[in-house]
Backbone:
């Protein structure tokens, strides 16, 4: 595991910080912001987030979650049952997390 989200050193906001902020300040949960977050998490650029991608994204932060957590998380927001999180599902899921 050598890849990081911020492999080009762009200084993209750590995703877990983003989520914490988004949860605190509902204002941040805009489609634009989430799109950027989504694209940075979608490492293989196939348009959906797999468990491995989520694990990797959070594995680089201080908020590492277990595979089980991500399986539950995906099950929770995976409305089409594809086993991965497409942007629309991500968007809805984040809105839910932010309490909207
Ligand atoms: Ca992907
Ligand atoms: Ca899905």
Residues:
């Amino acid at each position: 595991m050598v890849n990081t989200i911020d492999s080009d050193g762009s200084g993209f906001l750590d995703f877990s910080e983003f989520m914490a902020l988004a949860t605190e300040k509902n204002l941040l949960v805009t489609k634009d912001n989430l799109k950027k977050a989504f694209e940075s998490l979608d490492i293989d650029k196939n348009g959906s987030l797999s468990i491995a991608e989520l694990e990797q994204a959070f594995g680089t932060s201080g908020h590492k979650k277990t595979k089980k957590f991500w399986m539950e998380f995906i099950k929770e927001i995976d409305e089409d049952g594809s086993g991965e999180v497409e942007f629309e599902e991500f968007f809805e899921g984040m809105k839910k997390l932010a309490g909207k």
About this structure: The CA atoms of residues 22 and 28 lie 5 Å apart. The longest strand covers residues 48-49. The first helix runs from residue 15 to 24. The beta strands are 48-49, 85-86.
